[in-house]
Amino acid sequence: MVNKSVLRKLSNKELEAYLQEGNRFVPEAVQAAFEILEERGLVFCEQEKTAVQQLIQHKKEEEEAKFTEEHELWKDHITEDSNAIKLFPREFILLIGGLLGTIPGALLLGLNFIKLKKYGAAILTFIFGIVFLPIQNFLVPLIYKESTQGFFTYRKSPEFFMAAVSTLILLVFWVLFTPKKLPYRAASYIFPGILSLIMLAIIIKYPEWFSGYLLISFAK
Fold it and tell me: What is the reported pLDDT for 220?
């Protein structure tokens, strides 16, 4: 948000820079600078006023285009197009990663990267899926311990917090390494379903291995 009182401390020459083409100021700042100059008695002809309004409108359109572009980068471009490549759906990967941990989530995402021939990204994702488990198991009890001393605010559910962190990292990997705006079809859910059941069975049989997992917290 533009603080008009700050702009009022600037000289006329400094404010006039806000009205020049190619400046990096936001449209609200340009509008405020123009209004302050008018308040100070500067007279603008109709052509100059039109130029300023066009500049403001152009900046607004640029901001909207940038917002739309950023939204598109994070959007899931799943489609029914039969010509599109088949990948495991993003939302399903994130759901599994949140509930069953990074190992199955990272495995599915890594297999997607292999299909896309992003082998470096696949290896990085596989490593993350394995490495995050001991990190999670270490941090969750630490948060419980330190929260009693007032250092942490996630004492009610550090497992949920760590699950959210791991899911967010998987999402970032998807956005970074999947080609921008790539349309894809949902691959079969059979393998992810089997993988989920296997992972669930392992968690139930060896809960001590997954002490920091969200599912284990439900049984406490």
Answer: 55
